[in-house]
Amino acid sequence: MGTLPCKEIREVVERLVKAGWELRAEGHKATLYCPCEGQCTTVPVPGTPRNAGSAARRIERRAKLCPLPPDDPRRTRRSGVVV
Question: What is the pLDDT of residue 76?
């Protein structure tokens, strides 16, 4: 996704991509994919949310649902942003 319109969402997504999550643009929205093998968790990223702060917190909450800790060897690292 070229640029996310909301600062709060952009900061959360950049932090997750650096942590190994993969961001894929899908029309007017995007989806974050968990760095675990088998893609256990996906997080929708709204293109134009009504409340950017609330959407950013929702993205962070959903990302925390990944069952494997960040240092687990079963996690695979992905390249980051896929357009």
Answer: 58
